[in-house]
Structures are given as structure tokens and as C-alpha cells.
Design brief:
alpha/beta
Length: 466
């Protein structure tokens, strides 16, 4: 029998900050600034509000361990902060994209809440973020469906394996030993939400709200593992009855133990430039490039033609969009929002604007190539190989002028990475949205750049309290 579970447990329990290359720790710092900014920007949308309400109702208002609910006054119980901040981080679909989903909504929210409440160091935080990602990503890649699997009919398990991005950093920060971590992975797998298609088919914003639930569950399980409250649930990544069987029988050999400890998949994480689905990043970059270079406005545009058509990202209806999530997955909607709604943020997806006639009229001018379809399984395969689907765009103005651009990588891809100015821009946008004082904005940015020098992470998180 394989020993995949043991390998993961030995890796994460033995991982030290000193093992991490400077480019990885630098990326973790940038990721922190970016994800928190995205969370602050999205906190006024209904799912983020619901997560805060649920956190107070479920976890209460007082506990031994207290953390900051970003953009609020004072502190709340640590588990409540995880619930609220994790959902806010994903609400705008702005945080990140790995080969398998959006782990940073959990990695950052869990690690910040726990290191603040427990007064741990910046090195502890960075080690948990990167180590937690490695566990999450390898498990998620291991059980990905095959290219011929019908995700439209049967669903894609992002909400299933996402829970590992909560449990893994939590277990590391609690200093679980290898045996406790083995049990933690077992309990995490057995607490996995089912794979489903209904969220996508019905455009439900529960897509974002489930981060509150899996964030709370994964963190809670880590505490149970540390207190030795779990038993007889070992080696879940191994054997015929393990996690691959639970996830419809998929087991991609070579991912879970691929150069474990020497190759860090964290370096391949993509940070999103725009509050939209991953496959709409390059189309938005194309439009932004053309508008910036040529100075046209929405009212000047006759047509926007884009190639290829990304599978399940072409939705348009004069009836509008059913939810925030529904709009975030539509190329026509997102391009129209860019042109009409101003600075990226919650304003792109306000509830009273999802059927706005002006926006829908603009979206109707977006034409997607009928002869070139980019399937999502093939697009993700390219991403895992260090590549990305190339996007081309032609904008035709009402006066007959035409402008074209072709881009191979979106901003934020490892081949086109963010610099500090990029992540500062995301954070400042979110911080302004919640009226965070300028002195706290600048202090948070300054501290993010030297997280590894912090003896107590509470001073970082407390910058986010109003």
C-alpha cells in the first residue's frame, strides 16, 4: 500500500521557515496584502454579510481566543473571524487561483486569525500559509477528475477539497505531531462536502458562503486533533477505501508526492488581477490594455470580439443575472462592468445592478468566437503545465476604428507576476471601501513587507480593525 498520507504528515510537521526560499516567502507576503484587500472590497456583498451574521450566531461574541473580523470594530472569537474573513475573501472571486481552486481565502484568513489570537510570529504565519498550501494542492491535484469527466452534469469538487486549505495551516499552527496530523487529514477528508453541480447550474452565491463553513470545520478539526479527540481514521490518502474512492475514484499518480519538500507548488499560484472568474482575467486584461492605450469609452464601442470562447463563460440574457456568482462567470457581464462600473470592487456586482439595462446593453455588444471553444479541462491542463490559454480581442468603435491585442498570460500569472505596486493597489482599494484610516492602511502595508520579522502577528491584524 502507498504511504502518501504519512509523507504529507512528515513533510508538514517537519517544515520550518528556514526551509523556504526567499521568493516563496516574498510571494506569501504579497498574497497576504492582496487577499485582505479583496476581502475588504467584498465585505458589503450579501454573502459576506451573511457570513458575519452566521459567525456571531454560531460562535458568539466572547471566547478565550479572539481575532479581528476585518473591517469591523474590536475582536470576535477566533473561529468567528475565520468564518467571516474566509467568505469575504472569496466573495468577489478576486483572491487567487491554483490548479484546483482558491485556497488563499482559507490559508490567509485561518493563519491570520490563529496567529493573532495565539500571538505567534510572522515566521509561524508564513510557514503555515506555504506548508498548508502544499498539503491542499497535492491532495486536490491527486483527486482531480479526468478530462472526459462531465463536470457540467456531475459537478467539480472545489468546495470538497477546499477544506484542506483550512485544516492544514491550522494543524501546523497548533503544532500537531505526525500522528495527530494523520488523524486530522482523515477527519478533514471525511468532513468533505459532496461534489455537486447545482451551485453552478443555479448560479448560487452559496459558492462563496461555503468558505465560512469549511473554514470553521477545518479549523475546528485541527483543534480536535491537537487535543487527541480523533481516533482510527488514519491514512486517508491510501488504500481502496481512501479519499480517491470517496471522490468518485480519481487518483492522479505522481501529484501527491511529487518532489515533496523540494518542489513548492506555491510558486505556481496565480493572483487575480480582477474580481472575476479565473478564465475572465485575460479578457479583462485585453480590454484594459486597449482602453488605456487608445482612450475610448463605453459609448464609443460598437462591438467587442473575443477569441476563444471559454466554456461556460459566455452567458448573456436580457433578463440579467441571478446572482453575484452568476455574473462573475460571464465574460460579457464582466467586460461591461469594467466599462461602466469604475474601480473594481463590490460595485461591479451590487444586487440592484445585475439586471441593469445599460449594463446589459453593453454586454450584448460582446461577441465570442463561435468557431473556437476553449474547454475548461484543457485550460486547467495548460495551467498545470506552466502555460495559459492565449486570448485575442478586437474592439470596433462606432466610427469604424478597430484596435486589437493578443495576450498569452493574465497579470498575476507566475509568467506575468504581481509586484508590490499591484498588491498595494488591491489592498488600498479595499481599505478605502471600508474607510480604514490612512495611518492603518500604510502601517498594514509596511508590516506586510516584513512579516517574517514580526514577533507577534496581532499587530498586523489589528491594523484591520476600525
Amino acid at each position: 500500500m502507498t504511504e502518501y498520507t504519512k509523507g504529507l504528515c512528515d513533510f508538514i510537521t517537519n517544515l520550518k521557515f528556514e526551509h523556504l526560499a526567499p521568493e516563496l516567502t516574498d510571494k506569501a507576503k504579497k498574497l497576504t496584502l492582496h487577499v485582505v484587500g479583496a476581502a475588504l472590497s467584498g465585505r458589503t456583498l450579501p454573502t459576506a454579510v451573511s457570513a458575519r451574521t452566521a459567525a456571531r450566531a454560531v460562535v458568539g461574541t466572547q471566547a478565550d481566543l479572539m481575532s479581528t473580523m476585518w473591517g469591523e470594530s474590536g475582536k470576535v472569537p477566533m473561529h468567528g473571524a475565520v468564518m467571516a474573513n474566509a467568505t469575504a475573501a472569496d466573495t468577489l472571486d478576486w483572491e487567487d487561483c491554483s490548479f484546483t481552486g482558491h485556497p488563499s481565502a482559507h490559508l490567509i484568513s485561518v493563519s491570520m486569525a490563529m496567529t493573532e489570537a495565539m500571538h505567534l510570529t510572522g515566521k509561524d504565519y508564513i510557514t503555515a500559509v506555504i506548508g498548508g498550501f502544499e498539503i491542499y494542492q497535492r491532495v486536490a491535484c491527486y483527486i482531480q477528475p479526468t478530462l472526459d469527466y462531465d463536470t457540467t452534469k456531475y459537478g467539480w469538487g472545489l468546495g470538497s477539497w477546499q477544506i484542506f486549505a483550512s485544516a492544514a495551516p491550522a494543524g501546523k499552527l497548533l503544532n500537531c505531531n505526525a500522528d495527530q496530523f494523520n488523524l486530522l487529514l482523515g477527519a478533514t477528508g471525511c468532513s468533505t462536502p459532496v461534489v455537486n453541480a447545482i451551485l453552478a447550474l443555479q448560479g448560487s452565491d452559496f459558492y462563496h458562503l461555503q468558505y465560512a463553513i469549511t473554514g470553521l470545520t477545518g479549523t475546528m478539526l485541527a483543534g480536535m486533533a491537537k487535543r487527541n479527540e480523533l481516533d482510527n481514521i488514519y491514512n486517508i490518502m491510501d488504500g481502496e477505501s481512501g479519499y480517491p474512492m470517496m471522490m468518485r475514484g480519481f487518483a492522479n499518480e505522481g501529484w501527491i508526492d511529487r518532489n515533496l519538500g523540494t518542489e513548492y507548488l506555491f510558486g505556481q499560484l496565480l493572483l487575480k488581477h480582477w474580481p472575476a472568474n479565473m478564465w475572465i482575467q485575460t479578457p479583462l486584461d485585453c480590454l484594459d490594455h486597449l482602453k488605456t492605450e487608445h482612450g475610448f469609452n463605453a459609448e464609443d464601442i460598437e462591438e467587442i470580439f473575443m477569441t476563444p470562447t471559454y466554456e461556460e463563460r459566455d452567458k448573456f440574457s436580457w433578463d440579467g443575472y441571478a446572482s453575484c456568482r452568476d455574473a462573475q462567470f460571464s465574460v460579457p457581464y464582466c467586460l461591461a462592468a469594467y466599462l461602466l462600473r469604475g474601480e473594481p470592487g463590490a460595485n461591479w456586482y451590487r444586487a440592484d445592478g445585475l439586471a441593469d439595462k445599460e449594463l446589459l446593453e453593453m454586454a450584448s455588444r460582446v461577441k465570442l468566437d463561435p468557431d473556437r471553444l476553449q474547454t475548461l479541462p484543457e485550460a486547467f491542463k495548460m495551467f498545470t503545465e506552466g502555460l495559459f490559454p492565449t486570448t485575442g480581442m478586437r474592439v470596433t468603435l462606432k466610427d469604424g476604428q478597430q484596435f486589437e491585442v493578443t495576450l498569452p498570460f493574465p497579470k498575476g500569472h507566475p509568467q506575468n507576476p504581481f509586484d508590490w505596486e499591484d498588491v498595494e493597489q488591491t489592498f488600498r482599494s479595499g481599505a478605502r471601501a471600508v474607510n480604514l484610516p490612512e495611518d492603518k492602511i500604510q502601517r498594514f502595508i509596511d508590516l506586510c513587507k516584513k512579516i517574517d520579522q514580526l514577533d507577534d502577528m496581532s499587530q498586523l491584524a489589528e491594523c484591520l480593525s476600525l
